[in-house]
Amino acid sequence: MTLIPVIDRPLRIAFIGAGQMARNHLNAIRRLSMPVAVVGVTDRLPAAADQFAQLAGIRSSFSIEALLSDTKPDVVHVCTPPSSHFEAAHAALDWGAHVYVEKPFALTADDANGLVALARARRRLICAGHQLLRDDAFEQLMGGAAGLGDIVQVDSHFAFRPMGPAVPRAGSRRLAQQLIDILPHPLYSLVDVLERFGPQGANIELSWAYGGATDVQAVLRAGNVIGRLSVSLRGRPVSSSLAITGTRGTLTCDFVRSTVTGTANTGTEALEKILNPIAEAWQLASRTALSLGRRLRNGVAYPGLQPLIGAFYRAVTRDGISPVSPEHLLRVTAIFEQLVAAIETTVYQPSPARPRAARVTAAPYVAVTGARGFLGAEIARKLEHVRGIGRAANPEDRNVHDWVVADLSTGLSPDALAGVDVVVHAAAETSGDFDAHQRNTINATRHLLRAMRAAGVSRLVLVSSLSVVRPPRTPWERQHESTPRSDDPRRLGAYTWGKTLQEELVAREAPALGIAARIIRPGALIDSTAPELPGLMGRHLYGRWHLGLGRPSLPIAVCDVSRCADAIAWCATHFDEAPAVVNLFEPNLLTRRETTSRMREYGWDGRIVWVPVSVVSGGIITARTLLSLVHGKLPEPLAAWSILRPRRFDPTVAATMLDAVATNGSDRIALHA
User: Fold this and answer.
1) Burial (CB count <10 Å: 0-12, 13-18, 19+), residue 520
2) pLDDT value of position 591
3) What DSSP letter does each residue of 160-214 carry, written as one string?
4) With respect to CATH, is domain 11-130+306-323 assigned 3.90.1150.10?
5) How many of the other CB atoms lie within 10 Å of CB of 278?
6) Contact status, residue 565 vs residue 360, Cβ threshold 8 Å
7) Residue 174: per-residue pLDDT
8) How is residue 316 annotated by DSSP?
9) For the chain, what are the domain ranges?
10) Tens digits of residue pLDDT in 326-375
11) How far apart are CA 641 and CA 665, in angstroms?
12) Across the chain, what does the average pLDDT equal?
């Protein structure tokens, strides 16, 4: 007699949460061989739910309760932010569904115990997104570990590069949140190995832990087996590995490459000392190549995700044993809670008061959208009275007087702009697809304009991009503020398409709403605190070596992020004197050679191999075509040459405005761009 009722029909699958991870789940489900039917989705953002529903060919629901009652799912995937995992999973279990929860399973041991108890009471299965346990490399590691003798030590190492603003400019709380977000993966894989190889029935104890904004280190113990955990946002190279050391040898699983290396011998004999490095080098090279080939062929973003979901579904329909046991979930959550406490104890200590940074002027009250972003935070630092608007607040940023938490893609209340004199619109999508740019750049701008009209705010500084200017018709054409925007921006990629339509929207609708606009088009941003080669100038290859596009004498439009923020803040505080449009770049950094020299002054020590733009463009087109054909579709047109080709911009307006900024606006200017 099984505890869980067996289901002998296609499983009905519903989603709570419709973000990128939910899409990864959906792609994994579509690759399963067993019959399933995705029947519904809900999300706190209705637009996100509608887009996911369109992708899945289903209807969205406005609430969790409506989703459950309307679709009657067998399995619910919880893909919400961690803070709402418990609420969503509890509702689904209480209704009667089996539940798959993204990591972390729960934030506290009490929440985890509550979910496990409810699942048992409702005779339902629960699983968490511990997909590394179903990665082929992890399973190979477990198979080989039996030959290592008595297990002595397990090392779980995770080094991650934070996305978004440069680390030196990110607040400690923001970094700590990223650290906590990636912590479950190296933790649950370590705990799983200790469960397997520690003494039967032994508790897994947290013996020691240190936590900070960017690093967490810990020592775990299961009997006489020691587990060492190291997770860092600062460590390089980016890596995720698990090494098992026994009395007969060591094996290492590399989750980045999905490979296992190691000779599993004691390494004490003379021949072993000579041949082991050679054998491991061959393993690393050959297995990495095979793993890369598999990933390109399969297009799998998260190895182990599909096998884990498939195993959970089989448990629901057949044997009633979840591939991730409740006992494992409780152990991981208990240790996770302790490690998070260690991090937060350090991060949330009161910091001594520090003087506010020097300001451009103290005149208007300025609302800055995207004030938590790389450029947005720098703009806020240059202003006197700032209200930050974004999806989340950053209470650490003392340059922002008050925060309004809002998702511009779904709308903005006029109350968010109460008392504001000027809006600086710096929020925009930077890396998503066309749908993401439609939501977060175009729709967000439309909602902002309507909120400004309703709140009576009539001044807007729009942070756009130089990429919106149409590609030059000749190599020697000098473009300026009156050069038109591209008439076919979709061929220039999602980012340029979104920014171009955003500018067109402001130019078309702002005057009718009684809103005056100033448009700032920054060039490629460089940061003196963390200098990196601008994307239009090249890419990092290996070590200190970079691929440079073109040749050193070709033009490139760049702007130091601090100077860019100065200029945008000046436009907000000297709105009537600011030009209607400015192509903003450093007038004294007009070539790639000059830009490289400036970066070296900032401490950059890279080396560049220059390659003709035509060669790189051809390579991009060829690679996109081959990858698309492998997946059975044609690539969307991309004018790689037009995107990468050098441009020459007239510096007159930029130079005049930057001169005015340098004198803090003491000299009035009249520019007619």
Assistant:
1) buried
2) 95
3) ----SS-GGGS-HHHHHHHHHHHTHHHHHHHHHHHHHHSPTT--EEEEEEEE-SS
4) no
5) 10
6) no
7) 83
8) I
9) 11-130+306-323, 136-301, 365-535+556-589+648-662
10) 999 999 999 999 999 999 999 887 544 444 444 444 558 999 999 988 99
11) 40
12) 90
CA distance readout (Å), 34 to 24, 72, 308, 671? 18, 19, 13, 66
pLDDT confidence of residue 427: 93
Q: Counting beta carbons within 10 angstroms of the beta carbon of residue 61, is it exposed (0 to 12), middle (13 to 18) or buried (19 or more)? A: buried
Whole-angstrom distance, CA of residue 538 vs CA of residue 7: 55
Residue with tokens 């499983």: 11
DSSP per position, 127-146 = EE--GGGGSHHHHHHHHHHG
- Is residue 574 within 8 A of residue 664, CB to CB? The reply is no
At 315 the pLDDT is 95
Residue 296's pLDDT is what? 64
Q: CA 485 to CA 587: how far, in whole Å?
A: 22
What pLDDT score does 297 carry?
Answer: 66
Q: Give burial (CB, 10 Å; 0-12/13-18/19+) of 668.
A: exposed
d(CA 606, CA 524): 18
CATH superfamily for domain 365-535+556-589+648-662: NAD(P)-binding Rossmann-like Domain (3.40.50.720)
Backbone phi and psi for residue 479, each to the nearest 5 degrees, phi listed first:
-95, 155
Tokens of 354: 């520090």
User: In degrees to the nearest 10, what's the CA dihedral of 229, 235, 237, 239?
Assistant: 20
Cβ atoms within 10 Å of 252's Cβ, excluding its own: 20
Residue count of the chain, please give it: 673
Give the Å distances, CA to CA, from 359 to 331, 383, 386. 50, 5, 11
How open is the CA angle 202-207-209, to the nearest 5 degrees?
A: 140
Fold of 136-301: Dihydrodipicolinate Reductase; domain 2 (3.30.360)
In which residue ranges of the chain is pLDDT below 70?
A: 1-6, 163-170, 296-300, 350-363, 630-632, 634-635, 664-673
pLDDT of residue 171: 74
pLDDT confidence of residue 300 = 66
Report the pLDDT value the prediction gives residue 392, as an integer from 0 to 100: 84
User: Edge-to-edge, what's the strand order for the sheet holding 538-542?
Assistant: 538-542, 545-549, 607-611
* Residue 232: strand pairing partners: 159, 215
DSSP calls for 430-460: SS--HHHHIIIIIIHHHHHHHHHHHHT--EE
* Cβ-based neighbour number of residue 588 at 10 Å: 10
For CA atoms 273, 279, 283, 284, the dihedral sign is positive
